[in-house]
Amino acid sequence: MDDLAVLIEPQIPALRRYATALLRQREAADDLVQDTLERAIRAWPQRREGDLRAWLFAILRNRYLEGVRRRRGIEVGPEALMEIAEVGVDPEAAVGARDVLDGIAALPEEQRSVLLLVAVEDMSYAEVAAVLAIPVGTVMSRLSRARGRLRAFLDRAPTIVTGHLRRVK
Amino acid sequence: MTASDPRPVGEDDLHAFVDGRLDPGRRARVEAWLAAHPEAAARVAADREVRERLRARLAPVADEPIPARLRIANLAGSRRMRLPRRWPSAAAAALLLALGGAAGWAGRGAVPGPGAHAEPMTQAAVSAFRTYVVEAAHPVEVRADGSTDLVRWLSARLGRPVTVPDLRAQGFRLMGGRLLPAGDEPAAMLMYDDDRGTRLTLYSRAGPTGGRGVFRYARADDVAAFSWIDAGMSYVVTARTDEARLLRVAEAVDAQVSGKREVAR
């Protein structure tokens, strides 16, 4: 069990960060991480060799999507989840200064996760493809769409100082 | 350099540029291309800004210390990790303090502070655990075949009724027990095991009179122990397992020994 702690615990800060970005609520995020870790511990004997970080992040994301399904109270396929936009968005947060997390919360989950894993978690495109179980080309196209939407978000943001070269059609 | 370059700059290059994933040669090429394409350069600048803001916004989360409830040791093997509901919250808080305070217990001496009377007993219990769990042929003096004999024998030798808790609900079967020297009075040690061969001991002896202590946790290398006092007896459960599972055992033992006493009254 100590081996497990040595291997997994270094990943916990990043898992919390990803969960927080997905859920916005700290308690809910830690619940998700706890659920993920418990899953990982139980599944450990069946784990194949491979990227531990990608494996843990994949578990977390799958648990998150299952949670979304449960909250909606319906059985939906993965394709229906692609258009999930805001989850756990604090309505008050959108009133004042624009939080960049509001920007990503407005993205479909599939784009949000790609952007978070690439831009915040510093995963390679291949690693993101492994977490999401999609081809690298799909990672790139989702990243493009995510970034395109967020540029628009920044442009609409009243509190952001627009620097040089900021205006884009 | 133009877009009709034999190796044209692609969108993938621009993303990799934003994410700092280009090798120096390719990066220089992309920079040169961006210098000639201000609209694309503006998009790249915006993408970088979003990236930096996201990172800055989320960085504090990853800088925080890991909450205790997410420690692997506090999770392992457990489906639900909650303090038992019937515990008063003060007892729960005391347990958490003990968890924190007992971290340096192994080897180097005693945990300071109140309740240190449990310390030598926990050490004795852990020593007994280490001595007898590795025993293949005679881990116990009296086997559990007829556990009433075991109960009668231990009770007679200790001069007080000994309860043998049923821990099957926690996955442990009774193997048997033995008597151990413990100062003026003997101590009783019961041994249990589970399907995977994990052995667990329950060590008990006459303890400080009166009072009802909280569960105290100690770990010595890979051995974990919970100790507590109740109605003139001291108890220590010890195993090579995680805290969560051991806590459930301690709770079950406590419920059974105190339940028996109330029935006997």
From TrEMBL, chain A:
Gene3D superfamilies: 1.10.1740.10, Winged helix-like DNA-binding domain superfamily/Winged helix DNA-binding domain (1.10.10.10). Residues 8-60 form the PhyR sigma2 domain. InterPro entries: PhyR_sigma2, RNA_pol_sigma-70-like, RNA_pol_sigma-70_dom, RNA_pol_sigma70_r4_t2, RNA_pol_sigma_r2, RNA_pol_sigma_r3/r4-like, WH-like_DNA-bd_sf. One of its GO terms (biological process) is DNA-templated transcription initiation. Pfam families: PhyR_sigma2, Sigma70_r4_2. GO terms for molecular function: DNA binding; sigma factor activity. Keywords: Sigma factor, Transcription, Transcription regulation. Residues 100-150 form the RNA polymerase sigma factor 70 region 4 type domain. Belongs to the sigma-70 factor family. ECF subfamily. This is RNA polymerase sigma factor. The gene is ecfA_1.
From TrEMBL, chain B:
This is Transmembrane anti-sigma factor. It comes from Methylobacterium gregans. The lineage of its organism: Bacteria, Pseudomonadati, Pseudomonadota, Alphaproteobacteria, Hyphomicrobiales.
